[in-house]
Amino acid sequence: MTTHLTQASLMSVHHSVSDDDEEEEVGGAQRAELRLAISEDEEEAGPFSDLTALVMRYRHGYRRCCVLLCVGGVIVFTAAFLLAYGIFSGRYHCSQAEQGHEQQLGGAKAPSEGGAGLYLGELRLMMRKLLQDEDIHNTVSRVSRAAHPPGSSEGTALASEILQRFRDLQMDHTWTESLYATLQFPDRSQRSSLSLVDSAGRVSEQIPLNPSDYCPYSATGNATGGVVYANYGRPEDFKWLKREDVSVAGCVVVMRVGGGVSFAEKVWLAEKNGASGALIYPDPADVPQDPRRLGLNTHTAVSEHVHLGSGDPFTPGFPSFNHTQFPPIQSSGLPLIPALPITATVASKLLSQLTGPSCPRPWQGRLPYVRCVVGPEFSNGRRVQMSVQNVMKPILLNNIFSSLEGRVEPDQYIILGAQRDSLGPGAVKSGVGTAILLELARTFSAMVKKGFSPRRSLLFVSWDAGDFGNVGATEWLEGYLSMLHLKAVAYFSLDQAVMGDEVLSAYTSPLLVDLLDAAIRQVEHPKHAGQSIYSQAERDGGSWRIMKPLYLNSGAFSFTAFAGVPAMELRFTEERAYPFINTPLDSVSRLQEVLGGRLGVTGRSLGELVGEMVLRLAHDHILPLRITSYAQTVLQFSAQLNKHSAELQSRGLSPQWVFSARGDYSRAAETLQRAIDYSDLHEPTITRFYNTRIMKVEYYFLSQYVSAVETPFRHVIHGRGNHTLSALTEHLGLLTSDPGRFDESSFRRQLALFTWTLQGAANALNGDVWSIHNMHRFTH
């Protein structure tokens, strides 16, 4: 998948390896087959005339109810009370007529004995009893015994084991999907190196490196120059250097791990500012100092990929199935400069010899013997020479799927996934997510056998090549992009789910916020028995506001920003970051020490939290997604526009169009929500119609005016590129910070791209063309 260098910051279609087919080894070459046929009636809930009849029938029924209310108010009030009681009690049942309709859907199954009458509360209790702490701990231990990168014998053995564990659960469908992707590994014949050279270019000191430490997708080759220290390598850090007249052009930039910036973003910003190379190290100031927690030592480097994007960078916008033909292009997100991870010890050696302006106080880390100076010159006149020697290899990847088929709407999927691979032991990177995935699959499979009849299908996926930029997941999304907005209800990423047990963070689409808010009130905090996650967070000073935006390296990011599917990644952490991620020290013993021996308990709590949300999505007649959430986001931007209204109008730019589009979207979302609230949600056709529209809300915010190949993250709120709200906001800020750089023509285009996408979302939510016409007539 590609990303512009101008950016700032199914079950019915699957690979044919199933329980009923001839079994092949996971490591063997398998041919993926795409069958993307979608019937016309899948595009909408049903014929338009049927929908019109339903709406008219509802309206006539409403009038009759008004007459009855006047004549027999007591009777209607009593009936309404009983109906409300039935709904809010969470009773899960199907009327005989509805069950008859389900049998006609094709593929729908009759509920198991006793399953149709289970309360939501009963299902919660069943799930809690079935979830096992010990299974989670044992699986993490098994997965993280050794490094298991894609294509290795360890990785292949683990894939085979997970496939067998899925098969042992005897779910409705289990299969693998194979693809070839181009991954980058250290060259075994030539090692990367780092050295100090004198003014004549002769090597005066060779600095030792661990040959297994590398940044996947770095540019290969050499870079020689002075050294500039750029703190975390954030945009504001490079702006500070520019203000202080410290040029990074032609220099090797040294940056700290962290700061809310991925390795890919650090390297891209260094390259954008003219650097010839990048070195990234973990500063002791950024890792825990509690002696009980074995803080990251100064001889360990952190490895992370540097592709500013996701998926196979050599098939941007195309799925890497082994029979797919694609043009010979590569992602613009691949860096053009070499990048290496180094240890704090190596960073100390380099930075202690620099001369130049002193660092601002917030930049001062805790490297030994270092007076914080930004460079670029060495006190002894030497320079740095770095050489990166990596090679690209085509690797056979295997994504592993298992599913429980929904009994009412089997073609709507709730997806749970976790990466399986890791360049190191990966207790946090891949072990925890894989363990919770398998435990939730086992739990829900057992619940079905005990009588649970999910309305919608549950899809459990073990992704390959996550350490290279979520390659397995992104390639699957690229293969089924045209249909996912019709079938994928939500995605839950389990990657790095447990890094501590104090603070819960949620990187999420706003559509899922209500689900999470309800779930944290139901689930007990792993460290505070008898208290819910919500109550404990409130006790800690209201830190229950744990929502964070999706970020590029998140396992959930591509689902929302690329495919338009509501997605969430949950994470239990400590106040200080887990220091061992992406290192050889990410072992189960260290994770247990961080957690005080509570790995199983914490993993179970996280699993229960995700399970609670999945249960609601699989149980409720109407999908419990907050379809009005984006109205508030756009309202905040409208307020910023309003502050600059006079300045914009003086430049011939009017914000009125955005205000109108925002109003249209807000009214359309609220109208749809009211229609849902006052509808008969036990009428299958109406329920299907509304759920289809709800599932498309996130998809509506994918800009139709940019290329999915050149600008894959098309979502105007969560994506990356000039079409996004963040880019528009940043450009607007120039009116105050740097008016000379404000480009009226560029801003006009950005405003048009965003506004038309927003207006399109409003029109789609509103539904009928005559309703859209009326909406415009009254609001413009």
Automatic annotation (TrEMBL):
Gene Ontology MF term list: transferrin receptor activity
GO cellular component: external side of plasma membrane
Keywords associated with the record: Cell membrane, Disulfide bond, Glycoprotein, Membrane, Receptor, Signal-anchor, Transmembrane, Transmembrane helix
GO biological process: endocytic iron import into cell; transferrin transport
All copies of domain PA, residue ranges: 224-292
Keyword Disulfide bond: yes
Transmembrane region(s): 66-88
InterPro entries, per the entry: PA_dom_sf (IPR046450), PA_domain (IPR003137), Peptidase_M28 (IPR007484), Peptidase_M28B (IPR039373), TFR-like_dimer_dom_sf (IPR036757), TfR1/2_PA (IPR037324)
Domain Peptidase M28, chain residue ranges per copy: 399-590
Localization (cell): Cell membrane
Disordered: annotated segments: 1-29
Membrane topology, as annotated: Single-pass type II membrane protein
Record-linked SUPFAM superfamilies: PA domain (SSF52025), Transferrin receptor-like dimerisation domain (SSF47672), Zn-dependent exopeptidases (SSF53187)
Sequence ranges of Polar residues compositional bias: 1-10
Annotated family: Belongs to the peptidase M28 family. M28B subfamily.
UniProt protein name: Transferrin receptor 2
Organism classification: Eukaryota, Metazoa, Chordata, Craniata, Vertebrata
Protein's gene: TFR2
